[in-house]
Amino acid sequence: MLNNLIAIVVISFIIVGSLWGIGNLLNPEKENDLDSEGILLIAENNFFNNTNPTLHINRNIPERITIVNKDFVRHDFIVDGLNVNTGYLYSGQDFTTGIASRELGTFEYYCSLHPSTMRGEILVADNK
Ligand SMILES: [Cu+2]
After folding, report:
1. Is the pLDDT of residue 61 over 50?
2. How far is the CA of 100 from the centre of ligand 1 (A)?
3. In this predicted structure, what is the pLDDT of residue 12?
4. Environment class of residue 47 by beta-carbon count within 10 Å: exposed (0-12), middle (13-18) or buried (19+)?
5. Taking the mean position of all CA atoms in its chain, how far away is CA 71?
6. Which of 19, 23, 83, 94 is most buried, taking the most CB atoms under 10 A from its CB?
7. Centroid of ligand 1 to alpha carbon of 61 (angstroms)
8. Taking the CB of residue 31, how many other CB atoms lie within 10 A of it?
9. pLDDT tens for each residue of 84-123
10. CA angle at residue 113 from 58 to 40, to 5 degrees?
11. Å from CA of 118 to ligand 1 middle
């Protein structure tokens, strides 16, 4: 009787495990959906996207921006003129926020921990 119970439990585990495995094969998780919309900045080797690219946004149109920290050290992403501050992102963390501006012009973004190498510009224009 006890043996039968144990057998049923073991078989149940095997069946559930198999179904779970098959389900994962049929519906693989998306690995990275971050770059499907908006701006993606990767903080790596104390740069943003290797080159600290100039970001272009339209006036009065909010832009989604995601910062991913692929370094082992902390980084943040700050735009003083546009009230953007991610706070510290630890290794492997990411953060998505929005950037919007009512004013045309150029705004500086930077990492407060590495301002000498992690620094770039955001250009706000009409019809970027
Ligand atoms: Cu940094």
Report:
1. yes
2. 23
3. 72
4. buried
5. 13
6. 94
7. 27
8. 6
9. 999 999 999 999 999 999 999 999 999 999 999 999 999 9
10. 35
11. 6
3-state secondary structure 25-68: HHCCCCCCCHHHCCEEEEEECCEECCCCCCEEEECCCCEEEEEE
- Average per-residue pLDDT for the chain: 87
Residue 97 CA to ligand 1 center (angstroms) comes to: 17
Ligand 1: distance of its center to the CA of 68 in Å? 11
- For 20-37, what is the mean pLDDT? 58
**Residue 4 Cα to ligand 1 middle (Å):** 60
**CA of residue 62 to ligand 1 center, whole Å:** 24
90 Cα to the center of ligand 1, angstroms = 10
